[in-house]
User: Fold this.
Amino acid sequence: MWERAVPSTTEWMSTADAAKALGITPRTLYRFIDHGDLPAYRFGRVIRLKASDVEEFVEANRVQPGELKHLYPDGADKDDAGDQQ
Assistant:
């Protein structure tokens, strides 16, 4: 008898749905998949992603406080500017 390899609770997303959920273009999604950043599965000609993998990808790419200081000039943020008054 055939044994179920995939739990029935797995929620699958199309590439279009995953790209929309992430707020990116399908091309960017395919780049993440191709680079190994986001797991995907091919079923014949169709590519699907597990919703749980997409959620893990989002959490793994969370920006931590202080990681973006290189994006504003002289390392000054609005809190520092308020202290100068």
User: Anything to note?
Assistant: The chain has one domain: 12-71. The first helix runs from residue 15 to 22.
